Amino acid sequence: VLLDLMKEGPVTDIRENIPPGCHVSHQLAEITMKALQKDRLDRFYSAKAMRAALQESLVMAGGGFFHVFLSYRVATEARFVEDLHMALRKLRVADEDMSHVQVFWDKVCLKNGQRWEDGFMSGLSHSLVMVPVLSEGSTGPMTDAESVEARVDNVLLEWASSLALFQSPQSNVMSIFPIFMGKNGGSSNFFADGSNGMGRPYPENKPVATLDKVQEHLAAFNLWDSCKQFVENMNVKNTIDELK
């Protein structure tokens, strides 16, 4: 009977059987469920894949760090970032375990049903190096002076948050390493004249809606006090200039 249950019975959520007072994260529960699936095609395809998932779960739970956080605009840099993520994950850290570089890529690290805003800030606040991808496509929406004040630009939100964290002594962000992309993936000096390469200068307007979100997220991680003065002086142009 026991063997039949193991072969045919449903896989239950481990959170249903933990002792009172104990906690299992949503990410760890999902990993366990996947590892226990009856059909091998539904399980992790390798032990390395499961280890990577466990490492990411540990980081998201506050027990470790991502080495790299990738920031990009999905509409224009998704393919490039997918290749970049694959290349970075092949690298190893010069530590005792020679473990793989841990990369926060929203497509992989954000779970189904998780709010992007919650996930990105958790990932960013637990990352050591932030890598923003700057291109005509990623910066184009930021050149509209009127709309940039009224609406939240998610890419600008990531960049402004990372700059604020970088200057904060309480933050884990140690470095910002921008990647500049020209047309067709080549390099170009499209920031030289203060525009994004399409003849659109970056406005000195304050992106009010976006900065309000920056404050909200930093406050949620108890980092607002150390970032307040820096954020209050930000506008679109000096944010881009800080990344250049």
Helical amount among residues, as a percent range?
Answer: 40-55%
What's the number of helices? 12
**N- and C-termini, Cα separation:** 65 Å
Task: Give Rg in angstroms.
Answer: 21 Å
Number of strands: 5
* Uncertain segments: none
**Average pLDDT:** 83
Q: How large a portion of the residues is in β-strands, by DSSP E? A: 5-15%
Q: For the report, how would you describe the main beta sheet?
A: 5 strands, parallel
Describe the structure.
This protein is of the alpha/beta class and about 240 residues long. Helix content is about 45%, strand content about 10%. It has twelve helices and five strands. The chain has helices spanning about 1-10, 25-35, 45-60, 75-90, 105-110, 115-125, 135-140, 145-150, 155-165, 210-220, 225-230, 235-244, and strands spanning about 65-70, 105, 125-135, 175, 180. Strands 1, 2, 3, 4 and 5 form a five-stranded parallel β-sheet that branches. It is elongated. The model has no long low-confidence stretch (mean pLDDT about 85).
List the helices and strands and how they pair.
Layout: H1 2-8, H2 26-35, H3 47-60, E1 66-71, H4 74-89, E2 103-104, H5 106-109, H6 116-125, E3 127-135, H7 136-139, H8 145-150, H9 154-167, E4 175-176, E5 179-181, H10 208-220, H11 224-232, H12 236-243
Parallel strand pairs: 1-2, 1-3, 3-4, 3-5
Helix pairs in contact: 2-3, 6-9, 9-10, 9-11, 9-12, 10-11
